[in-house]
Amino acid sequence: MNKNNQPPLPPYLNLDPEKAAAKLPDPIGTSRFAKAATFCAKGREDLARRGYAPDGEKRLRRFSIWEITKYLIPVAPAHLRRVLKANTELPQGEGEAGSKWFTLEEVLTLRKHFAAEGVSTKEYLPYRPNGLPAKVVSVANFKGGVGKTSTAAHLAMSAALDGYKVLVIDLDSQGSMTSILGGTVADEWQTVFPLIAKDYARAVQEENRVRQVGGQAEIPLDETLQEALNTTPTDVIQKTHWPNIDLIGAQLNLYWAEFQIPVWRMGLKSWPLWDGLTNFLETEGVLNDYDIVFIDTPPALGYLTINALAAADILLVPLGASFLEFDSTGRFFDMLYTTFASIEDGENTAQRAAGLPELKFEWDVVRAIITRFDASQQTDMANVIQAYFGDFMNAYRQDFTALVGQAGEQVNGIYEADYRDFNRETYVRGRETFDRTYAEFKEVLIGCWWRDAQLGGESNG
Question: Where do transmembrane segments lie in this chain (predicted)?
Answer without folding.
Answer: none
